[in-house]
């Protein structure tokens, strides 16, 4: 039986997960339709580039929920910085209307919580249920 709970590197075995939430500036409901679809693609692309795995994602009109698995060398702040910075730049290039509605796409703040094995299923279920509310 193969377990996907742990990730192995040359010197490390780890299971590090983070629940991350952030919002557009002024909590504007701009993450809809084409913006939502492009944002999902951009997040997967950047996560792959930085060596982070997005396990669950839910894009709400006014906020983003992610459950990511990361190597121990990637700090939580750096992960958020990379994802928010890249997506802000790319979305504002592809959707110029975002520039007129918001001075910056994302707020400076975010929520992050580390998740161990016990709470992982709970976080996954919570994120999956977001659209049903």
UniProtKB/TrEMBL annotation:
- Superkingdom assignment: Archaea
**Entry-linked InterPro entries:** Transposase_17, Transposase_17_sf
Tell me where in this chain the Transposase IS200-like domain is found.
13-130
> What are its GO biological-process terms?
DNA transposition
Q: Which residues cross the membrane?
A: none
> Pfam families recorded for this chain?
Y1_Tnp (PF01797)
Coiled-coil blocks:
none
Q: Name one GO molecular function term.
A: DNA binding
| Entry-linked PANTHER family | TRANSPOSASE FOR INSERTION SEQUENCE ELEMENT IS200
The name of this protein is: IS200/IS605 family transposase
Organism of origin is Candidatus Ethanoperedens thermophilum
Output the lineage of the source organism: Archaea, Methanobacteriati, Methanobacteriota, Stenosarchaea group, Methanomicrobia
Designated gene of the protein: tnpA
